[in-house]
Amino acid sequence: MRRSILILLLALLSLSVITCLAQKQEYVGQYDAYFGFAYLTTPNMNLDQRGWQGQFGYNWRRWVAVGFDTSYFGGNSSITVPQLNNATIAKLAPILPLLPPGYTVWSPYHANTYTITGGPQFNYRGFKWATLFIHPDLGAMYQSIKVNPPDPMMAAIVGSLIGPSMKTSQWTPFYGVGGGIDFNVSTHVGIKLTSDWVYTQLFQDLLRNPQYTWRMSASPTFHFGKNVPK
Fold first, then answer.
1. Does residue 99 fall inside a structural domain?
2. CA quadruple 198, 149, 162, 97: dihedral, nearest 10
3. Which domain holds residue 137?
4. Which element (helix H / strand E) includes 190?
5. What is the CATH number of the domain that holds 174?
6. Is residue 225 part of a domain?
């Protein structure tokens, strides 16, 4: 699914370059806003989440804007021993010999993820019907985890690692890069497709590796305000 979405985004981007007339955009609204469906995937955690993303931007010049966006995602996955860091595995070492033969240490969990991002965006408006853009991703991510052990034995193990509530959460900064295309359906309405790649380090006290996260979204976008001078 992730590969199909990426291929679709690349195909749409290539199509726009080929088919868009090389004409300047007559109207560029001073403000942009959008809200729509978004998808977040963290491959090394086997975690796929769905939710929404919203953004508000101010076009300082036709080629550069500043703004912020926020998003929410929810999804399920499972935690396994290979995902844990050495310190966490050391805590399990006294327990593992006491487990029944063939018993697998794993547990499903539900994750809620929130992001906040702000900064510049650089636009190319050489086509009449589409705007290409790229931006750095600098922001913060908050993730809350609720572990749902499959049996009492696993519940005791999880409780020894994160506490009897079976919950944990953390804020962490992230950085990366993103971009996409905004199809100008009309003067004030468009369809925006975006993709972002970011690097985070959530739950370092438990997990072995940092996370490389992809976010993709598709939504209507609205352009309003006075026309930005050429």
1. yes
2. -110
3. 2-21+30-111+127-218
4. strand 189-200
5. 2.40.160
6. no
C-alpha to C-alpha distance for 92 and 69, rounded to whole angstroms: 40
User: How many domains does the chain contain in total?
Assistant: 1
Distances (CA, A) of 117 to 57, 109, 147, 226: 12, 26, 27, 25
Please report the DSSP string for 31-47 in residue order: EEEEEEEEEEEEGGGTE
Query: Cα–Cα–Cα angle for 11, 13, 17, nearest 5°?
Result: 115
Q: How far apart are CA 53 and CA 35, in angstroms?
A: 6
pLDDT along the chain (230 residues), means of 10: 54 49 79 96 96 97 96 97 94 89 94 97 94 96 97 94 94 96 95 96 93 95 94
Give φ, ψ of 152 to 5 degrees: -60, -35
Strand intervals (E) in 81-150: 106-124, 130-147
Is 101 among the domain residues? yes
